[in-house]
Design a protein that fits this description.
The protein is mostly beta strands. It folds into 2 domains: about 160 residues, Glucose Permease (Domain IIA); about 35 residues, no CATH class. The strands form 5 sheets. Strands 3, 4, 6, 7, 10, 11, 13, 16 and 17 form a 9-stranded mixed beta sheet that branches. Strands 1-2 form a two-stranded antiparallel sheet. It has a two-stranded antiparallel sheet with strand order 5-12. The longest helix has 12 residues. The model has no long low-confidence stretch (mean pLDDT about 90).
Length: about 230
């Protein structure tokens, strides 16, 4: 996904992979620490620290700090569109070096940077370790120990079933069957200058309908011309 972007299917938010670059360094059921788990490690575009973005409007529901082990549970505030239909989605994330900006009850809008790669806990090199599940989280400890002796999020499902990869650059997708989704061009009255609104304005002004506000913009030029001439849009 792109930073600060909104992804809608009609009026429903779409669950989009929460990074600009996908670089999976350890996949599902891969190696000892992921044995029996559907978790993945994403190291971003390089060895530096990249952001993870809210894949939908979410709320921090659980947080744990034990020594240098830091984990948070982020849950969708409503059902969102996933490759498995409309679902409540939960994401548990680990290794951010500083989670002081996250607290239980914090609300974060889709597209906002909210989590960073790090090395907190048992980690080699900056990355985010995360797992996903469906269902409405209520309370309690969100993890269970599996038959391989590793801890995983309750009712864990594959991230492939949770996220579309619209606008994500796939550096290493581990060969998984990631999907994209065709977003609706319906204009939703939400106060956001999104792709659908831009395309609608471009259509009305008779300019290229790409949903992008470029600089300079033929759409803005036409809008300025009409405003100067006193023409109605």
């Amino acid at each position: 996904m792109k930073a600060n972007s909104k992804y809608l299917k009609g009026s429903i938010q779409v669950s989009v992979y929460p990074a600009e670059v996908m670089n999976i360094t350890q996949g599902m059921n891969d190696g000892f620490s992921h044995r029996g788990r559907l978790t993945i490690d994403d190291a971003g575009k390089d060895t530096g620290i990249d952001n993870f973005y809210a894949p939908f409007d979410l709320v921090i529901k659980w947080k744990q700090i034990i020594g240098d082990k830091t984990g948070v549970l982020a849950c969708s505030s409503n059902k969102v569109q996933t490759p498995k239909g409309l679902q409540y989605v939960n994401i548990i994330l680990w290794h951010d070096n500083d989670t002081s900006d996250l607290w239980v009850g914090k609300y974060i809008q889709q597209g906002e940077a909210f989590y960073q790669e790090g090395t907190a806990g048992f980690a080699t090199g900056n990355h985010v370790h995360f797992g996903t599940s469906f269902g409405l989280y209520t309370n309690g400890y969100p993890m269970i120990k599996n038959s391989s002796g590793n801890w995983e999020i309750k009712n864990e499902v594959s991230p492939v079933e949770v996220f579309y990869v619209n606008d994500t650059i796939i550096k290493n997708g581990k060969g998984y069957s990631w999907q994209t989704i065709e977003l609706n061009n319906e204009i939703v009255v939400n106060g956001i200058l999104d792709e659908a609104t831009l395309k609608g304005l471009q259509k009305r002004l008779g300019t290229v309908q790409d949903g992008v506000l470029s600089t300079p913009s033929s759409m803005v030029k036409e809008l300025q011309r009409r405003l100067i001439n006193g023409d109605l849009i």
